[in-house]
Each structure stands twice: as structure tokens, then as C-alpha cells.
Amino acid sequence: MSLTSILSAEAIENAVKDCQAPDSFCYKKFFKLCGLSSKMPQEVKDVFQILDEDNSGFIEESELKFFLQRFVPGARTLSEAETKTLISAADDDSDGRIGAEEFLTMVQS
């Protein structure tokens, strides 16, 4: 499964282009622009599985740094501040990582 089987390539490209400047990543705007926030829960969980590179059932800080590159190879890495903002937005149980349910809640908020 690939991200483009769930989201349109054009929408993904537009979302990544919108946050190319350093420290300009806003997860709410990104999820809206790429179309993820309007997807069904199972589709959001499918995207989570793709982003969970090591298949641990969680997206850790090390994976989040390369979040944009999972959507478009060659995109910039997220800054430490952007990564921490993304984790704190979703990490409801304060374990320092994002689980599938936490990701779904963040995307749909």
C-alpha cells in the first residue's frame, strides 16, 4: 500500500510545498491540504501504518523527523521544535510516541 492509493499525489505535493520553509509545518493545515482529515478512520489508520516505518505500532520521534519525506522523497526534515509539537499534539498518554488511535484523534481534530 502507498500513500497515493489513499491520497491524491497532487494534494500530497501541495501540502508538502506549503510547509517547505523551515519551521512552517502546521499539522492541522497539512492534514487538511493533503486530504487526510476528510478520510474515513480506516484510511487514516492505513496512513499511520505507512508512517510507522519500523512497524512497532507507534510513530516515534525518530520517525517523525522524516514525516514529510514519507509523503514526498526529498522533502525537508522536520525541525526538533516541529517534531515535539507534533508529538505533544497527539501523545495523549505521554509516552513520547504516537499510537494509531492517537494519530486518528489528531488527524480528525
CATH class: Mainly Alpha
Task: Determine the N-to-C terminus distance.
Answer: 25 Å
Please give the largest β-sheet. Answer: 2 strands, antiparallel
Instruction: Report the radius of gyration as a whole number of Å.
Output: 12 Å
Quick one: overall form?
globular
Look up the CATH topology: Recoverin, domain 1
Q: Mean pLDDT across all residues, rounded?
A: 96
Strand content: 5-15%
Main attributes?
109 residues, mainly alpha, Recoverin, domain 1, two-stranded antiparallel ribbon, 7 helices, 2 strands, 53% helix
Describe it.
The protein is built from seven helices and two strands; from the N terminus they run H-H-H-E-H-H-H-E-H. The protein is mainly alpha-helical. The protein has one domain: Orthogonal Bundle (Recoverin, domain 1). Strands 1-2 form a two-stranded antiparallel sheet. The relative contact order is 0.17. The model has no long low-confidence stretch (mean pLDDT 96). Belongs to the parvalbumin family. Ca(2+) 2 binds at residues 91, 93, 95, 102.
